[in-house]
Amino acid sequence: MLIRHAPRFTASEITDPKLYLSRRELISGAVAALALSPGPCESATPQGPSLSATRNAAFSLSEPATKAEHATTYNNFYEFGVNKDDPSRLGGTLRPRPWTVQVDGLAHKPKTFDIDELIRLFPLEERVYSLRCVEAWSMVIPWIGFPLAPLLKRVEPTGQAKYVEFTTLLDPAQFPAQKPGFFGYSSLDWPYVEGLRLDEALHPLTLLTVGMYGRVLPNQNGAPVRVVVPWKYGFKSAKSIVRIRLVTEQPKTSWEKASPQEYGFYSNVNPAVSHPRWSQADERRIGEFRRRETRPFNGYADQVASLYAGMDLKKNY
Ligand SMILES: Nc1nc2c(c(=O)[nH]1)N[C@H]1C(S)=C(S)[C@@H](COP(=O)(O)O)O[C@H]1N2
Ligand SMILES: [Mo]
Prior knowledge:
This protein is of the alpha+beta class. 18% of the residues lie in helices and 21% in strands. The chain has a single domain, classed as Sulfite Oxidase, Chain A, domain 2, CATH 3.90.420.10. Strands 1, 4, 5, 8, 9, 10, 12 and 13 form an 8-stranded mixed beta sheet that branches. The protein has a 5-stranded mixed beta sheet with strand order 3-2-11-6-7. The protein is globular, with a radius of gyration of 20 Å. Molybdenum atom binds at residues 76, 133-135, 233-235.
């Protein structure tokens, strides 16, 4: 008997790449969403439900935003694979509801929040930040979220709390690359763990993010909630967070475990400190061809340089 399986392949896999690209350029927006109707393993479209928020001009770049189409199809989210298009192709297996975020550790009032409760607790604002990947590309994105500080203060950190650890969901049923024997290599130790020093986590620039481009966060960008730390390399901005834990010791992050000489705990954007395999002096904005100079702390030096006064940032890379 012949069993017809639902199609597993996306248009990019079954169409000649050149044709696929020209077709993609011709068709746009909602029409493209219909024409390339997604299979079960593909996330629907970048056009999720809309989410309203007031733009906070004091924390917004005036530069034009990267095209939403680029920001939602060129991603790093290793839980779906190491290729830039894996997260948008395969992101449909992530279920961002129901979802809880446990905020605990060294806190007087630890609490597990339902994601929708969290969204109602703090006023949402839109901020335009650039995020600069350690791979020397960057994007300018209108994020929607709220600062992490009031959430941390709400659980009342104890005097022993010195760092904040972020943990991404661990569920091989939702993240294909977490399955043992995943096809293709996967260098990270799951779950994805990142960390900040407590003063970095409390900094007003540090944003807990639930949307972008006026809509809820697409799966491939870290639904339903991710942190965005704009003065650090992109990998510090952990996606699909289930736990935020206050701790005394500096967290051991997934990237440090994978390659400590390449990815330090601080990972502040720093054009003066090269990655061992490439320069960090410049970057390419996705959607542009020219390269532009990378700025110290990704342009946020005025706001954050004082956090590192007296520290050797070559040693603490
Ligand atoms: N859980 C998780 N978070 C992650 C990653 C990841 O692989 N897994 N990649 C990081 C890297 S390297 C970057 S550059 C940013 C990319 O965010 P974006 O896809 O929304 O642009 O997410 C970061 N957060
Ligand atoms: Mo990155």
